[in-house]
């Protein structure tokens, strides 16, 4: 009787599993989007869970009662379509936004992808402040991940007033945290071409790592504003 050979004996190889946004966008499309050369076609309809939407309605209404709510939602209208690719197609499963999350730093909203925080907004008296996580090498003078090489003059020029910006070094290789104070400076920062490229690069890095770990905290009511036409 001829023995049945196992697959491994036959020299067969399995294809590597495609993860993250590579399922929807090839690397050339991703690079062109980062550079601002193309607009990515998105789906017209959103896959939405009504149970998930109703879960955070009370928190969203609480956010709306805050004096900073208007600025928060306006900033998210700017951040969403400019900093996250194919918003509708990737909503919740590859990125999410939480509303008044129960963390010790008491944010108003936070955008996540994979296991990583991307963008957070906080109350700053009657105004707001933001925290943006990016690659350190996108903000150094020599493109290295060397903390002493941070391009401080560029950072100061990218906001309304130099004192509106500060930075820190989270744990991890090539990770950089930027704090921007005031809605005027946040808008200026998010519309700077070099900054936008850096944010897009970092966001794609983590969206390509696979499914979002924060799906359960996604607030559709806040996401509505990020996807408003």
Descriptive notes:
The protein has 229 residues and is of the alpha+beta class. Helices cover 34% and strands 16% of the residues. It contains nine helices and six strands; from the N terminus they run αααααββββαββααα. The chain has helices at residues 27-34, 50-55, 57-64, 69-83, 87-90, 152-157, 183-190, 193-207, 220-226; strands spanning 96-99, 109-113, 116-124, 127-134, 165-168, 176-181. Strands 1-2-3-4-6-5 form a six-stranded antiparallel sheet. Strand 2 (109-113) and strand 3 (116-124) form a beta hairpin. Helix 1 (27-34) packs antiparallel against helix 8, helix 4 packs parallel to helix 7 (183-190) and helix 4 (69-83) crosses helix 9 (220-226). The longest helix has 15 residues, at 69-83. The protein is globular.
């Amino acid at each position: 009787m001829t023995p049945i050979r196992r697959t491994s004996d036959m020299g067969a190889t399995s294809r590597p599993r495609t993860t993250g946004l590579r399922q929807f966008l090839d690397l050339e499309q991703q690079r062109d989007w980062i550079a601002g050369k193309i607009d990515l076609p998105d789906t017209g309809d959103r896959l939405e869970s009504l149970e998930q939407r109703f879960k955070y309605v009370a928190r969203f209404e609480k956010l709306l009662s805050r004096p900073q709510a208007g600025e928060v939602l306006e900033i998210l209208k700017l951040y969403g379509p400019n900093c996250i690719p194919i918003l509708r197609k990737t909503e919740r499963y590859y990125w999410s936004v939480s509303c008044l999350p129960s963390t010790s730093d008491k944010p108003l909203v936070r955008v996540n992808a994979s296991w990583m925080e991307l963008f957070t907004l906080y109350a700053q008296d009657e105004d707001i402040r933001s925290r943006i996580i990016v690659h350190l090498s996108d903000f150094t003078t020599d493109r290295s991940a060397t903390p002493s090489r941070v391009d401080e003059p560029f950072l100061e020029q990218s906001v309304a007033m130099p004192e509106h910006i500060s930075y820190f070094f989270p744990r991890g290789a090539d990770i950089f945290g930027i704090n921007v104070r005031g809605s005027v400076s946040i808008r200026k920062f998010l519309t700077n071409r070099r900054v936008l490229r850096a944010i897009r690069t970092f966001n794609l890095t983590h969206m390509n790592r696979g499914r979002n770990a924060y799906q359960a905290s996604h607030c559709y009511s806040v996401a509505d504003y990020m996807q408003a036409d």
